[in-house]
């Protein structure tokens, strides 16, 4: 009788379906413009850790940039604090392969050291993807994750086009398996995967690849719940969800609903229903403080099935057009975007290709097709982001490249090591830990701004913008201003010896003592203040800002100025840059000219039509 009972219990054992919680990263990135604070996370982290999730996506994506740029928080400290509370559930991040967390390729040494420090600070699972689905752009990141003990989750960026087929996706997954990936994620960033497509793709992966399959999607089209169920039935073992208050719209499907559906279908999710209710109640209250005031939108955007644009990207386009005073032209942009995507060889629309294609579509509408081209678009066409899924429009490519030849090698092979150069560029007194150098490598202007803000005495810091003020200060903000930390002084001599000393070849940690300079190097002098912009009005012709944005005379810290006063610039030559919508727009001479004087300070905000440079033709 006992033997029969045992067999009976074994027969009714339910298959396990795991759920990754995205509330702490993708959900608030999709719904709240990534404005969740570290304090907000820590207040609920213990309950989230005890709820029974497979993993917690809490880092990567846009969180790193936003922490420094808007919230004045250290993203590395956020990771450490979350790990200090969440000891049961693996932490997960979104890593853009060779792009890491930025909008361009970074050298291999930067990729490897970023992964190493992420592992040291508590990251467990790395979802590594490439916007082009180019395996060459994943090699270094996957190798580094494995080297430093993390779980490398390879990723398929799902999209629909004449060249994206189940066979091609499966072949890409097999390439990642050969690289050492531990699992495969299907990243349906626009929420356009149908249940039938999920069944076909998951079935193909399960047959061809000996790795667990996970599905990620968004509720933009309203299909994700049905698609998840079909994908699980086809063999997927894990799905991404967000707690219900932070779900739907352009976020992930609701956790509680999927739990009910899976359990009714005979699956076990292992999640604690009571804790889920408590977590949801917390975010329901937090929503009153953190949700943007202008979030009115339709719960389902069926148009995504036609234009294939991720929900977050639509929000960005709307915001960016509004900043340019052209929100009424959004329908034109939506019509233009599929055409631009086709010209670019049908890339999946996910960071950074979503920004590149999206902003180029905006520029095509505002100025005419490819009359204003961002540097990122030019780099894309040249092949610096990787191999496009399909051939580019030859006429468009010829116009954009203007005589330059595209590359055929792995893009990162053209990049020099970046850590040593970055270490030289940062004033030593601003560096507190090695991680600051990595932050600077990814976002130079943003990181420097944050470092300078952090270095000021608390009472002298510029206030965080009113809509982003925290009701309770973080531990970092509450700490009294201190003298330059001893470790900072030891890092002052990092310079050209940086790569050798941190032992990248051997995978070792930084030898802080070895980095000490004896005698200690003097702090780098403060840069001389630039003169005020000329008060007098220009007397000659000017080059004006084509967009609202930020004015730069160089392409970044440590880079030479594009032009100086008195320089003669040939037709088509770059004079300055206006950064708008996160991309760099080189402002070029329409005909030969001489630069008379610059009318705007480097790094100053500018408005459309504002004179930037006085010139002489």
Q: Any low-confidence stretches, pLDDT <50, length ≥5?
A: 466-535
How many runs of DSSP E, i.e. beta strands? 16
- What multimeric state do the chains show? single chain
Q: How many DSSP helices?
A: 26
What's the rounded overall pLDDT mean? 85
Terminal CA distance:
100 Å
Radius of gyration: 25 Å
Net shape: globular
**Biggest pleated sheet:** 8 strands, parallel, barrel
Structural class: alpha/beta
Order of strands across the main sheet: 1-2-3-4-5-6-7-8
Helix and strand layout, with pairings?
Blueprint: H1 2-11, E1 18-21, H2 23-31, H3 38-42, H4 45-50, E2 55-60, H5 63-71, H6 75-85, E3 91-95, H7 108-120, E4 125-128, H8 139-147, E5 151-157, H9 166-179, E6 183-188, H10 195-208, E7 213-217, H11 224-233, E8 238-241, H12 255-264, H13 273-290, H14 304-307, H15 311-323, H16 330-343, H17 353-367, H18 375-382, H19 394-401, H20 419-425, H21 434-442, H22 444-455, H23 475-478, H24 486-490, H25 498-501, H26 512-515, E9 542-544, E10 549-552, E11 568-569, E12 574-580, E13 583-588, E14 593-598, E15 605-606, E16 611-616
Parallel strand pairs: 1-2, 1-8, 2-3, 3-4, 4-5, 5-6, 6-7, 7-8
Antiparallel strand pairs: 9-16, 10-12, 10-15, 11-14, 12-13, 14-16
Helix pairs in contact: 7-8, 9-10, 10-11, 16-17, 21-22
């Amino acid at each position: 009788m006992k033997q029969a009972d045992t067999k009976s219990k074994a027969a009714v054992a339910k298959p396990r379906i795991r759920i990754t919680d995205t509330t702490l990263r993708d959900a608030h990135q999709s719904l709240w413009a990534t404005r969740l604070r570290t304090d907000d996370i820590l207040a609920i982290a213990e309950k989230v850790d005890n709820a029974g999730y497979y993993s917690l996506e809490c880092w990567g994506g846009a969180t790193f940039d936003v922490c420094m740029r808007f919230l004045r928080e250290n993203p590395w400290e956020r990771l450490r604090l979350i790990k200090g509370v969440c000891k049961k559930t693996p932490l997960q991040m979104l890593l853009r392969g060779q792009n890491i967390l930025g909008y361009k390729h970074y050298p291999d040494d930067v990729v490897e050291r970023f992964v190493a420090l992420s592992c040291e600070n508590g990251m467990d699972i790395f979802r590594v993807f490439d916007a082009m689905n180019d395996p060459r752009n994943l090699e270094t990141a996957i190798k580094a994750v494995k080297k430093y003990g993390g779980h490398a989750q390879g990723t398929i960026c799902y999209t629909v086009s004449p060249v994206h087929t189940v066979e091609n996706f499966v072949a890409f997954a097999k390439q990642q398996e050969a690289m050492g990936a531990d699992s495969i994620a299907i990243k349906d960033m626009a929420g356009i995967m149908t249940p039938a497509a999920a069944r076909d793709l998951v079935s193909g992966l399960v047959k061809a690849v000996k790795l667990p399959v996970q599905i990620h999607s968004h509720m933009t089209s309203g299909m994700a719940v049905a698609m998840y169920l079909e994908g699980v039935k086809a063999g997927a073992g894990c799905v991404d969800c967000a707690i219900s208050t932070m779900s739907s719209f352009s976020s992930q499907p609701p956790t509680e609903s999927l739990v009910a559906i899976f359990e009714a279908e005979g699956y076990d999710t292992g999640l604690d229903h009571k804790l889920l209710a408590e977590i949801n109640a917390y975010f329901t209250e937090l929503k009153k403080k953190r949700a943007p005031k202008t979030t009115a939108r339709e719960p389902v955007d069926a148009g995504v099935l036609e234009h294939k644009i991720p929900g977050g990207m639509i929000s960005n386009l709307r915001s960016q057009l509004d900043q340019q005073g052209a929100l009424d032209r959004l329908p034109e942009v939506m019509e233009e975007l599929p055409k631009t995507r086709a010209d670019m060889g049908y890339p999946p629309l996910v960071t950074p290709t979503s920004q590149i294609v999206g902003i180029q579509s905006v520029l095509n509408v505002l100025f005419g097709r490819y009359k204003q081209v961002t540097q990122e678009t030019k780099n894309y066409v040249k092949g610096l982001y990787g191999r496009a899924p399909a051939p580019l429009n030859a006429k468009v490519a010829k116009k954009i490249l203007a005589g330059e030849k595209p590359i055929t090698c792995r893009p990162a092979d053209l990049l020099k090591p970046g850590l040593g150069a970055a270490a030289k560029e940062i004033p030593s007194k601003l560096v507190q830990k090695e991680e600051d150098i990595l932050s600077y490598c990814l976002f130079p202007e943003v990181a420097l701004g944050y470092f300078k803000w952090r270095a000021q005495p608390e009472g002298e810091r510029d206030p965080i913008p009113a809509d982003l003020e925290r009701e309770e200060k973080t531990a970092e903000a509450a700490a009294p201003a201190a003298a330059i930390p001893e470790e900072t002084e030891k890092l002052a001599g990092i310079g050209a010896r940086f790569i050798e000393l941190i032992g990248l070849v051997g995978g070792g940690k930084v030898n802080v003592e070895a980095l000490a300079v004896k005698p200690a190097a003097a702090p780098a002098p403060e840069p001389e203040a630039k003169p005020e912009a000329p008060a007098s009005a220009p007397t000659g012709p000017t080059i004006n800002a084509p967009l609202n944005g930020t004015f730069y005379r160089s392409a970044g810290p440590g880079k030479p100025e594009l032009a100086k006063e008195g320089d003669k610039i040939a037709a088509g030559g770059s004079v300055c840059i206006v950064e708008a919508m996160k991309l760099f727009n080189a402002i070029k001479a329409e005909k030969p000219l001489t630069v008379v004087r610059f009318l705007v300070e480097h790094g100053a905000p500018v408005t459309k039509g504002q004179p930037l440079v006085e010139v002489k033709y």
